[in-house]
Design brief:
By secondary structure, the chain is an alpha+beta fold. It has helices spanning 16-28, 53-63, 67-85, 142-155, 159-169, 255-268, 287-294, 316-328, 347-360, and strands at 5-8, 89-92, 96-100, 122-127, 138-139, 171-172, 179-184, 189-190, 200-209, 222-224, 237-243, 271-278, 303-306, 332-335, 340-342. Helices cover 32% and strands 19% of the residues. The chain starts with a strand and ends with a helix.
């Protein structure tokens, strides 16, 4: 399966457009009007602006781990695997959502391989709205992609130069809901500024054939055929989110944005968030963090999602004590900004390695 192409699926069995539109409508508080549906995804910009997109994205990523979405998504992925890969592949656990409003750009031209995916990981792009021209995905072919990639590496092109090279080689897809575009991770693709009067909403997911390299992605990124992707049902991990301003860049990133990133991380990793806590300002001994671990919330959660490792104590002795408390309670710690996960068995060693690495880069 090294080629690219468009194929169709049954929209009645997989009504992703309706499911996601309803999720956004509820989040925005738009009244349901079955006889006169004013709200459709391609008109999202009439009801929301750029500042409300983060809240919409969080709502949809929360939807992505519920049974309402998981069931049709799993069904479609299993159908694709059976038809295209002979039942020998795994699929991305949680798809990636994209929203491109009029007048906005989305992503630079790239290949997924440049971002750590394996060379033969298979991509699937599914628009939820009609797409054409500048509100669509621009793609190249395999031969041209290889040539551009080699040129970029040998000539050490800037991002702008990369975009210029790719722009000349890529063409926009013309598609509708009910169609999926399939291509490989080494194919160059990207978007242009949306000069249409229509919002583009799409999601994409990847598949990994048996025996192929998954690249830098963790093993939990893919779900093997026949296994169940996590939903809000039995066995889902629970967490508390911890944010604040302490060292380095944590002082310049708003707590609102820290919380947004932590919630999005939780949704993408199928972790339920019980509540979020902010550290008290001016208290060096971190009373809010200690209360989460050993106080009123102890025993209620399995995972602690922390915005940055720089929110931990500056003293190695205090970090060791905190790590021992977490290990005793069998907690897993997630540091969102650094993309570090520390587990009970080697909690302190993992924390120290991550902390020293972050200090060296700041």
């Amino acid at each position: 399966m090294n080629g690219s192409g468009i194929f169709t699926f049954d929209t009645e069995q997989h009504p992703f457009d309706v499911i996601i539109a309803e999720c956004i409508r509820r989040r925005l508080g738009i009244a349901h009007q079955p006889d006169n549906p004013l709200f459709v995804l391609s008109r999202l910009h009439k009801f929301a602006n750029e500042s409300s997109l983060d809240d919409i994205l969080v709502a949809i990523y929360e939807l992505f781990v519920t049974e309402q979405f998981v069931q049709p998504y799993k069904s479609l992925c299993e159908q694709i695997i059976k038809e295209k890969f002979g039942e020998k592949a795994a699929y991305q656990r949680v798809p990636s959502l994209r929203i491109q409003m009029p007048g906005k750009a989305s992503v630079n031209y790239h290949t997924d391989e440049w971002y750590g995916h394996g060379h033969n990981v298979q991509n699937f792009w599914l628009p939820l709205t009609p797409v054409a021209g500048t509100n669509s995905l621009y793609v190249s072919d395999a031969r041209t992609s290889f040539g551009i990639t080699e040129s970029i590496r040998s000539e050490r092109h800037s991002i702008e130069e990369m975009n210029q090279l790719a722009r000349r080689a890529c063409r926009p897809l013309k598609m509708r809901f009910g169609e999926v575009y399939h291509f490989n991770s080494h194919i160059i693709h990207g978007t242009e500024k949306n000069d249409t009067d229509q919002t583009r909403v799409s999601f994409d997911f990847r598949m990994l054939r048996e025996g192929d390299d998954r690249g830098l992605k963790d093993g939990s990124f893919f779900v093997p055929l026949g296994k169940r992707a996590s939903s809000a049902g039995t066995g889902r991990r629970t967490s508390i989110v911890y944010i604040g301003k302490r060292r380095g860049f944590t002082n310049i990133i708003s707590q609102k944005y820290q919380l947004l990133l932590c919630r999005r991380y939780a949704a993408e990793n199928q972790i339920s968030v019980l509540l979020a806590e902010t550290e008290l300002s001016g208290f060096n001994y971190l009373p809010a963090l200690r209360n989460m671990i050993s106080g009123a919330h102890a025993g209620r959660f399995s995972d602690l999602i922390i915005f940055s490792i720089f929110l931990l104590p500056e003293s190695a002795a205090e970090r060791r004590q905190l790590a021992e408390e977490c290990r005793a309670k069998d907690l897993t710690l997630h540091f969102v900004a650094e993309d570090i996960v520390t587990r009970p068995e080697t909690m302190f060693e993992q924390i120290e390695f991550g902390y020293r690495k972050c200090e060296a880069s700041n």
